[in-house]
Amino acid sequence: MMKNGISRRDWQTLSAYLDGQLSDRERARLETRLIDDSELNIALEEIRSLRSLLQEIPVKRAPRNYTLTPQMVGVRVSQPPSYPALRLASVLSTVLLMLVWFSNLLFPMAMGSLPHMTAISEQPETSYEIVEPPLDPAREAPVNGMDDKESSKVPPGIAGIPDEESEKMEDPVSELEGIVIYEETQTEPAGAKDESDAVDPSGDLEPGETELEHPRLDTESSDLDDDSEVRAEALLENIFSRLSQWGIQDFMMAFLAIFAVTTGLAAIIVRRKVS
Amino acid sequence: MDEATLIGFAKEGDLDAFNRLVLTYQDMVFTQACRLLNDEQAADDASQEAFISAYKNIRKYRGGSFRAWLLRIVTNTCYDELRRRKRKPTTPLEPLDDTGDEVESPGWMADPGETPEEAYERSELGGVLRDCIKKLPVDFQTVVYLIDVQGLDYNEVSVIIGKPLGTVKSRLARARLRLRDCLQGNRELLPGKFRLKSEV
């Protein structure tokens, strides 16, 4: 017996009764007793009050989110099939690039990577035709029209002296200056002037002016716009002339470098998307 | 997306679907761990561990109340933690009586040297109730929290604690009796509407 007079068994029955866990027969018997048993009623109210007190205990808020990551549960993130392919392609192309580069360094002649150098060493007279970008007849006319003495005045880069070729190629500005100087030298000799006029099919060219120049280029006073256009034109000409000298190995190296970087970046992007 | 669909996806290994279930139940799981361990830091670890365990074993979930299934996992995780604490050679959680059995209501655990914050908490209704629950054996605490606080039914709790329905009924009734006795010892702290009829 408990201190308020009901047994532990009665207490348990009351507890289950409140939670609706009694059978119909047990519930009916208990309800009959509750009618005239005040102690049983008091105990029932005690349990009911206690239960409502417990139900008011607030649920605690979690201090953080317990969401899981693949690392936490030891799950390997499935990579898309393109990732290993891209990674392998990037690595292989890089290795191949290094091989080509080293072979180019060690055996430049044997590999034939510098055809222009080979051509220069073997046929110095014809190297000009290989190196020099095609010139307009109007540009060539004054040179052809000059005698040997005058042609010696022609600046490097235009006359195409093989020994000075590399210097010309490295500095487009010097080439540009060469053009200007060339114009000035062409205006002085009368014979050359006549020749210049003679080869001008349109007849629009002023004395000392060639088709290579921009039509608006004034030999006496050129403004900044004209100057920059001429520079850009010379730069482009220089780039194309350089490209025309590339051997198959140079193109291969450029292709491999671009391929390695592209596939590497693609692999990184694919992996980041997955993670 | 409903719970059953999310569980289905989670069973197929969809971590995002499982994480949506985590967000739904994490407060409940943390609360249960807090009540059983009485230590927020330990409850935090137990909650995380419980969710990891739940994900790894979700294929074993055979339907029924997912909430009860989660609570069973976190309850077992807390029991493991309590057993681990017991194995440590520190002050035992429950003293032994003359016969060597554990004393279930360890009044000796009450700390005589309370901090001001603890004293203030004790003056509040929640603090009184929490103290009374703390004095219960862990098995009794579990049943009280699951049925009276979390609102689960007897069958769910029977599944969670892995005991027959009769054991659940018995433990709950005994826990309520002890709580009543505990609260009657602090009746001056209870608000009028919670005063027990026997005091009137």
Q: Can you tell me about this structure?
A:
- The complex is a heterodimer of chains A (275) and B (200).
- Chain A has helices spanning 8-18, 24-36, 38-55, 82-106, 108-111, 115-122, 127-131, 137-145, 148-151, 165-170, 172-187, 190-199, 224-244, 248-274.
- By secondary structure, chain A is mainly α.
- The longest helix of chain A has 27 residues, at 248-274.
- Chain B is mostly helical and 200 residues long.
- Chain B is built from nine helices and no strands.
- Chain B is elongated, with a radius of gyration of 19 Å.
- In terms of DSSP E residues, the strand content of chain A is under 5%
* Protein structure class of chain A: mainly alpha
Could you tell me which chain pair has the largest interface and how many residues each side has? A-B, 38 and 47 residues
Question: End-to-end span of chain A in angstroms?
Answer: 66 Å
- State the low-pLDDT regions of chain A, or none: 117-129, 140-162, 172-203
The share of residues in helices of chain A is 55-70%
Q: Which structural category do the helix and sheet elements of chain B fall into?
A: mainly alpha
Count of DSSP E strands of chain B?
Answer: 0
* Biggest beta-sheet profile of chain B: none
- The secondary-structure element order of chain B is HHHHHHHHH
Large-scale geometry of chain B: elongated
